[in-house]
Amino acid sequence: MSTASASLEVSGLAFAYPDGHQALFGVDFSIARGERVALLGPNGAGKTTLVLHLNGILSGGVGSVRVAGLPVDRKNMAEIRRKVGIVFQDPDDQLFMPTVREDVAFGPAAAGIKGTDLEERVDRALGQVGMQEFKDRPPHHLSFGQRRRVAVATVLAMEPEILVLDEPSSNLDPASRRELADILRSLDVTVLMVTHDLPYALELCPRSLILSEGTIAADGPTGELLSDDGLMRAHRLELPFGFDPRSVTMGA
Amino acid sequence: MGAGHAHRLYRHGHSPVHALPPHAKLAATFAFVVVVVSTPRAAMWAFGLYAVLLALVAYAARVPAGFLLKRLLIEVPFVAFAVLMPFVAEGERVEVLGMSLSVNGLWGAWNVLAKGTLGVAASVLLASTTELRELLLGLQRLKLPPLLVQIASFMIRYGDVITDEMRRMRIARESRGFEAKGVRHWGVLAKSAGALFIRSYERGERVHLAMVSRGYAGSMPVIDEVTASRAQWSYALALPFAALVVCVLGWTL
Amino acid sequence: MHVPDGFIDAPTSVATGVAAAAAVAVSLRGARRELDERTAPLAGLVAAFIFAVQMLNFPVAAGTSGHLLGGALAAILVGPYTGALCISVVLLMQGVLFADGGLTALGVNITNMAVVGVVVAYAVFRLLVKVLPRTRGSITAASFVAALVSVPAAALAFTFLFWIGGTTDVSIGKVATAMVGVHLLIGIGEAAITALTVGAVIAVRPDLVYGARDLRRPLKLRVGDELVDAPAPAAGQPAAARASRRTLWIGGLVTSLVLAGFVSFYASASPDGLEKVAEDKGFAESAEEHATADSPLADYGVKDIDNARLSGGLAGVIGVGVTVVAGSAVFWAVRRRRTDEGADTSPTSAGV
C-alpha cells in the first residue's frame, strides 16, 4: 500500500465540534485504489465526523487527509470534492433539488458540464442504479429505497475517484438492501463504506477498519475481524443472532 | 408524507392557462392586480368587469367556481376590518337602518373588499394553474435575485419535510399523554419549537454539506430555463391589458 | 397581519415595494456575509422552519389559540439579515402560493413584518443584552422584551403606511390606538413563545443562537492525553466588509432619494381613488371636518397650505423620508455593533 497508489490517506486526524464535543482523537489509515473497505464502529464512534473530513467539509482540527495524493485544503477543494463522492445517510439531505433529474445533474453542472453531455451523464448515472424512469419525479414522492438509489446516482454522476457511503443499508427493506449491494458490486471505484451493518460489510468489503472512541482500533480482513469475539465485544460490535462470519463465502 | 400542504392550491390540468409559461403568468397576474388597485373606487362597474375577466380566465383554466370561492375565505379577518370602517371613518355621514355611517367609510369598505377579493382571486388562479417548480423557474426568469430564488426553493423543498417532523413530534407528545390545553403548556410546545429549529438548522447544514460535496460554491448551476414565445406572452398579457382598458375608462368616465 | 390588495393605494404600494426590494437586497448581502456559501440551504431551511412553526398552535383558553409570527425569533436565532430575509421569503411564497397577502401589498407586508418587525426586535435585543449581565437568563429576558416590542412596532409601521397611503379616511389616531392595543396583546403571546423557544434552543445548542454568540468559549482539543487549542478559524474579511458598507450606504442614500422623489411625484401629481371621491363629494367640506377632528395626527393636512392635495403629498414625502432615515439609522447601528464584535467572535461559526 504505497503512498503513490493510495486513493485515500488519513494521518493523525483529531477534531472537536464547536459545542466542545471531541469526536476524533488521532486517526490513521490508508486505502489503495480500487479497494472496497468497510469502516465499522458503534454509534458515536466518530464515523460520520471522519467522513466529513474526507472532502474537507470539516476541518480546523489537527492532522491531514490526502485524496489521490492531493492534500485536502482550501486550494484543492473543488478538485477534492469532484474526486470524493459522499452519499449521506439521509437521502432527504442529499436530494435537495426539485426533481430527480436536476438533482443528479447538480454535481456535473456545478463542474461546468452542459447540454447533451450533462443529459448523458444523468442518464448513465440513473441507469447504473436502475432509476431511469423516475427522472422527472420530485424526490419526496419516491420510496426510501428509491431515494437512497437516486442519492447514489447523484454522486456517481460526478465520476468520483472514491465513493464514500454513510450507512448505505440503514432503513432499507431486505429487497432494497440486496439491490443496492448488487449496484455497489457492479461499480468500478474505490469504496469506503461506513456502517454498523456487519453482514453487509462482510458481503461487500474484503477489508475493514474499526473506529472506536475516535481512533482506529483494528484494521484487517473483514472476516477475521468479525470472527475475533474479544475485539468485537471490546468495541460494542455485535453480529446478528445466528450469523457466523466463518460460514459465509464472500462475494468480493 | 402525503401530497404535502405546501402547495394545496395547485390543480393538475391541461388547460391553455396551465400551459402558459410561468413567468408570463406571474407578470400578468401582478400587472392585473396593480391595475385593479389603481382603479378609482367610485367606478363600481369597472370592478364588475374585472370579476368577469377573472371568471373568463377561471373558465379557460377549468377552475371550478366553488374552489375559487372557498379560497376567498382567507380574506375573512379583513372583511371584519372593512365592516368596521363605515362606523369609525371620518367625514359626511348617512343614516342606514337607523345607524349613522360614514360615507367615506362605506366607500373605503367597498374599496378594500372589491380590490382585496379581486387580488385574492387572481392569486388563487395563478397558484392553481402553475406548478410549484414552474413558479420558482418563473421567479428566476423574472430576474429575482438568484439567491432569493434558491432560498425559496429550499423552503419549498423542505417545507414538507419539516412540517412532517413537527407532526411526528406532536404524535410523540400525544402518545405520552401530553395534550396542550392552555398557557401553562406553552413551555413544552416551545421546547418542541426549539427542537424543530435545531433540527431544521442542522438539516440545513447537512444539505449544505451534500451540496458542497458535489461542487457547490455559492451559485446554483442553471439546469433548466423556461422561455415564452411572443404568442404566449400576448395570451398571458391579454388579461392585464383588458383590465388596463377598463381602468382607463374608469378614470375618464 | 397579511395585508391584502386595496388597503394601501397604488403609489404607496409601489414605494413600499421599492423600499422592501432594497431591504431584501441589503439583507441578501448581509446574510451572505453571515452565512457565506451556506446562505441558500440554511436560510431556506430556516424559512421552512418559520413557515412550519407559524402553524404550531399555542392554546390560550377556551378553544382560542395563538401562533408565532416569528420575526423576533428569526432575528435572535439567525441574526437580523438572515432573519429579515427568511421572513421576506416566507411572505413572498405565502403571497404567490397561498394567496395569503395581496401581491401589490407584498411591499407593505415585507416592510412591516420582515423589516420593521425584525430590525426593531434585534435592536431591542442587542441593547438589552449589552446592558444585562452575560447569562443565559438575560438572553431569554431580552428575547421576551424584543418580541413584545416588535409586534406593536410592526403594527405601528402599518398604521403609518395606512396614514400615508390608506384608502379610507379613518382617524389615524383611532387606527393607531386600535392597532397598537390589539397587537400589544398579541405581542405578549409572541413574547412568551419567543422567549421560551429561544431558551429551549440555548439550553441545547447555544452555539446556534446568533444573539448569544458572546457566550461562547474558546475550543479545546484532546489529542492523545494533551489538551491543545484548536486553531482559530481564519478571521473574516473586515476590509471587504468596510468597502461594501460604503457602497451600501451610497446605494441606500440613492434609493431613499429616488423613493422620496417617486412618492412626492405620485402623491402630488396623480390623485388617487380616495382623493377623486373626495373631490366628487366636495373636498373642502370633508377637509374641514378632518382638520377639526381632535386626533393628534388628523391635522397633518398642513394648515398654511391651501392646496389639500399638495399638503397631503408633502406629508407623505416627509413621512417616507423619516422612515427611510430611521430605518437606515437602525440598520447602521446594528451593523456597526456587529462589525465591532466581528473581531473577537469567530465569524465562521465553524469552518463547518
Automatic annotation (TrEMBL), chain B:
It is found in: Cell membrane. Pfam families: CbiQ (PF02361). The keyword Transmembrane applies. It comes from the Bacteria. One of its GO terms (cellular component) is ATP-binding cassette (ABC) transporter complex. One of its GO terms (biological process) is cobalt ion transport. It is a multi-pass membrane protein. Keywords: Cell membrane, Membrane, Transmembrane, Transmembrane helix. The keyword rRNA-binding does not apply. The chain crosses the membrane at residues 42-60, 72-89, 109-127, 233-252. NCBIfam families: ECF_T_CbiQ (TIGR02454). This is Cobalt ABC transporter permease. It comes from Streptomyces curacoi.
UniProtKB/TrEMBL annotation, chain C:
One of its GO terms (cellular component) is plasma membrane. Its main location: membrane. It is found in: Cell membrane. One of its GO terms (biological process) is transition metal ion transport. InterPro entries: CbiM/NikMN, PDGLE_dom. The keyword Transmembrane applies. It is a multi-pass membrane protein. Signal peptide: none annotated. It comes from the Bacteria. Residues 246-336 form the PDGLE domain. Coiled coil: none annotated. The chain crosses the membrane at residues 7-28, 40-60, 72-98, 110-129, 141-164, 184-204, 248-267, 313-334. Gene3D superfamilies: 1.10.1760.20. PANTHER family: METAL TRANSPORT PROTEIN HI_1621-RELATED. This is Cobalt ABC transporter permease. It comes from Streptomyces curacoi.
